[in-house]
Structures are given as structure tokens and as C-alpha cells.
Design brief:
mainly beta, Heat Shock Protein 90, 4-stranded antiparallel β-sheet, two-stranded antiparallel ribbon, 1 helix, 6 strands, 33% strand
Length: 113
């Protein structure tokens, strides 16, 4: 398995995950983002389904304004690409450094006192 991240010139973050597994049949690619989808639903299947993981990735990526793509070839593996837009942060007025933040479980990011 290979995992790589990349910042693009058009202000996007790409997360690419590649495997060398069994691959996914072309007629099943659109369905792998469905919760608990089984590519092979037979009782003798060797590999499990996707559970809810890929559906959650798709939902969260969409919520952040991005998209998920998948490419696959049988016997050669699959490549999943998560593409997220980034917001360009400009310097604060008068060249002041950005305010440091801390994470609050109940209210997200808060300025440090």
C-alpha cells in the first residue's frame, strides 16, 4: 500500500491511497461508496466488504467541498484520491502574526488567552 499527500498549485490537497490488491470490477465501482456494500456477496467470499468507511470518507469529503475518485483494475489494485479545496490565509493587518489557537471539544478552535 502507498499513501501520498500533495498540495497543488490550484490550492487543493490531494490524498492518494494505492494498493496492489485484487482490484474492483468496473461494474461495482459506483457502488463501493454504499454502506456495507459487498462486491462478492457469495457465501464463499474471501474478502470482506467496505463497511461504512468509504461512505464516511465520501460524506466528510463532500461536506468539506471536495470529492473522492477511485480507479481500479482487476488483479492490479485500486487507487483512491481524496481532493480537498484549501483556503488561502492572508497575513493579518500590519504584519501581525496569526493568533494561536487551541482545540475545544465543544466549540472547535478558540483563540489562546
Amino acid at each position: 500500500m502507498q499513501v501520498a499527500g500533495e498540495l497543488t498549485t490550484d490550492h487543493q490537497f490531494l490524498l492518494v491511497v494505492r494498493d496492489t490488491g485484487i482490484g474492483i470490477p468496473a461494474d461495482q465501482l459506483a457502488r463501493i461508496f454504499e454502506r456495507f456494500h459487498q462486491v462478492d456477496a457469495g457465501s464463499t467470499r474471501v474478502y470482506s466488504g467496505t463497511g461504512i468507511g468509504l461512505e464516511l470518507v465520501r460524506e466528510l469529503t463532500s461536506w468539506l467541498g471536495g470529492q473522492v475518485r477511485v480507479e481500479s483494475q482487476l488483479g492490479q489494485g485500486s487507487t483512491f484520491t481524496v481532493c480537498l479545496p484549501l483556503t488561502v490565509v492572508h497575513e493579518p493587518p500590519d504584519g501581525l502574526p496569526p493568533e494561536p489557537y487551541r482545540l475545544s471539544r465543544s466549540r472547535g478552535l478558540l483563540p489562546l488567552p
